[in-house]
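Quick illustration, no need to memorize.
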Amino acid sequence: MIFVMKAARLTGIRQVRIDDVADPGVPGVGEVLLRVEVVGVCGSDMHYYRTGRIGSQVVTYPFTVGHECAGTVMAVGPVSPGHAGPVLAAGDRVAVDPLMACEQCDQCHAGREHTCRRQRFLGCPGQAEGALSEFLVMPARCCFPLPPTMSFVQATLAEPFAIGLYTYRLWKRACGQEHTPGPLLILGCGPIGLSVLAAAKADDPGRAVFMSDLRDCRLEMARRMGADWVGNPTRLDLLATLRQAAELGFAAAFECAGEQETIDQALELLGPGGRLMLVGIPEADRVSFRPDVMRRKELMLHNVRRQNQCAADAVAMIADGTINLDAMVTHEFDFAQTAKAFELVADYADDVVKAMIWL
């Protein structure tokens, strides 16, 4: 017998419709059935909404997006052999890692599940329908139980924070045992940039973090979350100001805007031997780098894809109060208002930083 559920689906460029669709069925071995409670609207969702694609990942309509989510376990399938994680039960509240890795390819065996060759990711065209639906079936190992004090919204924020945490840890690991003095630069004060800030300040509160953005409301939020300096490049000469503030250049630049302009700014402001962490997703198919600037300072580029092995830590750090990202949530919507939420975020309207949709 086939049951139906509601799902919010893209039906064209900047078009969202709530449809009746088949439910995901009974959970299999190692899986759980979730009732989705909250979904966060992510910048990558906006790429699909505004342009119908991210690079070669092209939406075939209709399609359900959304991957930042938290939910309640409704049913549990048979435990998979060798299961090492927590045993879930109906009624458990969980945060969700949207990456479903195969666990069998060379990348998975190398501890790189985020580059799994056969991965499925919620809301990624050609891989898996997204979280903006009433129910989901997910691998149990992708679900992290919540303590009673942690809200569904906070659990949903663990997904973008895991990316920020992974990005910061990846930079530190790439530096190895080398001492990397100097301030950090974050370009873009959206949820990912703010998550990198939170991770950096939790690890090294004394290191100065400078941040830029085109929107004053986001700069103010960055300041409240611990940024040591914030600036809007439309209101000042960013390069001149930061060259004076950090005469030796920045140890690292975290590009979280996905724009050619911010990539150029990062290369100019990095100190010799500095590393550019490319976190933002450009809408353009190509970006460029000035080799003369990079060569003279022997700069390094490091691409960042999602997160890897940081989801559990992200949940724990929010749950125990090490990290507080509550202020990032500026708007909340009912499921019926999904189209309104997407339009708001797509246009950066009403000083939005992070919008949440309650199902």
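Residues 4-145+325-358 form a domain with the Quinone Oxidoreductase; Chain A, domain 1 fold (CATH 3.90.180.10).
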